[in-house]
């Protein structure tokens, strides 16, 4: 559709219809000092040729900095096939299957995503996807509360601080009580979890690998709450770890949720993200969003259908399980292409991630730096550095995207610097990172 600007006559007609004399009258509710000071000091307009030249000049100033920052958003290599296929117009312009019978391609992609998530998590069912890992966790808790009728939730302090804040906000608005369990040497102690998880609790929430990069002993936590009719929710914000570790489902999880952005989606200055939610079949009628199923049409040909649609757009509001989840279609498609591309080699990629992190750990320890928690890890861990925040700023000055100082989130751990390494982290960058860190902390 071509864009046709309104004419002066159109403007006069619209103003007359609403009783205004000029366009300026539409802004009279804004205080004068604000209106008068709202002018933008912008340069004059450029021709297309000059604008392109200007943008190329600005782009040439960009620098590619080695990143050691994880904390829930990990920098992974994206094979060119992902961009190439996901950029096709029939995919790029598709939104969501409100008319599912004519959206077979979209439905097929969603079905494949659900299948892949079930395979990774060890769960029976997975929905079409959530906005991000934090809201996926909130929805997982709501699902548990709906199932048990109990509104008390025990959450490990090892769960990502941002996830916990989002969960608290949703819980406050829905009358759910959040009880936080402390950490024991970097992980959630089964005994501490058990002491807080009596019959009044609906669920226990643990992240693995947790915010400190430590792998939780999920089976021990499950055993600690066994027989109490309490759901065990595991959240994961580095999904690649599930290609190497035992699935949460095989270790006793009832619901697995988290972030899938690592699969084929760029970090993108913090977004967009791609949440996922999977569970035992018991929860199928309580799961929010959509479930896509595989069937046959009237001619006997393969067909994909929206088996369940529990969003408020589809059913009566009071019966809806959620009104904030979407199928995140394009991000989901990129994840499907990424996972299909790697296939059985995904485990090899996970091993490479761990080996790069192990190399980083080895170099740091050789330079005299110690880990804050001596626990198994995947591709991220916390090192102990005095004035970690200041050290991170010095690393920025030396051309690195450094790790994260955890002091703002855990005041008692002032010297903790959370660092990550992925397949994108070259060994020579690790060598230089440790060398610079050694120099700036020696002063």
Highlighted features:
alpha/beta; Aspartate Aminotransferase, domain 2; 2 domains; three-stranded antiparallel sheet
CATH superfamily of the largest domain: Type I PLP-dependent aspartate aminotransferase-like (Major domain)
Mean pLDDT: 90
Strand content: 5-15%
Q: How big is the Rg? A: 25 Å
The largest sheet has its strands arranged as 1-7-6-5-4-2-3
- The CATH topology of the largest domain turns out to be Aspartate Aminotransferase, domain 2
Estimate the global geometry from the Cα principal axes. Answer: globular
Tally the helices: what do you get? 14
Q: What is the element string, with H for helices and E for strands?
A: HHHHHHEHEHEHEHEEEEEHHEHEEH
Strands, helices and their partners?
Layout: H1 8-18, H2 32-36, H3 48-59, H4 80-86, H5 89-92, H6 104-121, E1 125-126, H7 133-148, E2 152-156, H8 161-173, E3 177-181, H9 190-196, E4 201-207, H10 218-224, E5 231-236, E6 255-259, E7 275-279, E8 290-296, E9 302-309, H11 329-342, H12 346-366, E10 380-384, H13 388-397, E11 404-405, E12 416-420, H14 427-441
Parallel strand pairs: 2-3, 2-4, 4-5, 5-6
Antiparallel strand pairs: 1-7, 6-7, 8-9, 10-12, 11-12
Helix pairs in contact: 4-11, 6-11, 7-8, 9-10, 12-14
Could you characterize the architecture of this molecule?
- It is a single chain.
- With 443 residues, the chain is α/β, with parallel strands linked by helices.
- It has helices spanning 8-18, 32-36, 48-59, 80-86, 89-92, 104-121, 133-148, 161-173, 190-196, 218-224, 329-342, 346-366, 388-397, 427-441; strands at 125-126, 152-156, 177-181, 201-207, 231-236, 255-259, 275-279, 290-296, 302-309, 380-384, 404-405, 416-420.
- The chain folds into two domains: 80-342, Type I PLP-dependent aspartate aminotransferase-like (Major domain) (Aspartate Aminotransferase, domain 2), CATH 3.40.640.10; 344-441, Aspartate Aminotransferase, domain 1.
- A seven-stranded mixed sheet has the order 1-7-6-5-4-2-3, sandwiched between helices. It has a three-stranded antiparallel sheet with strand order 10-12-11, with helices on one face. A two-stranded antiparallel ribbon has the order 8-9.
- It starts with 7 loop residues before the first helix and ends with a helix.
- The model has no long low-confidence stretch (mean pLDDT 90).
